[in-house]
Amino acid sequence: MDYRVQSVIREMELALSEPHSVDSLARSVNLSTWRLCHIFKSETRKPPLQYLRSLRMQKARKLLETTFLSVKQVMFEVGLKDESHFVRDFKRVYGASPAEYRRRHFCQT
To answer: Most buried of 15, 81, 83, 89, CB within 10 angstroms?
Structure first.
C-alpha cells in the first residue's frame, strides 16, 4: 500500500475523535486534495472520508460491545457530534440502532 495512504490511515486511527477534512489529510502527506482522493480510492476502494466513517463505525461497534459507555459517549469518542446521524449511520451499517446492537452483543465477543 502507498506509504502516504498508510500515513493518512494511521492519522485517522490515532485521532479518530478529531475532525478531519480531506484538505488537512492531503496537506499532512504533501498531496493535493484531488491526488490524495485518487490514490486513496485506488488503494482502499473508498474515498478518504468514507473510509474514516467506516473506522468510526467499527470503533463505535467495539465500544458498544466492550464498555459501559452510553451511546452518546460512544458517539463523542468516535468523533461524531450529531446523534441522529450517528444512529442512522450505525443502523445502516449494522442493521440495528446502537442501543439494540448493545443489547444483542454486549460482552459476547
So the answer is: 89
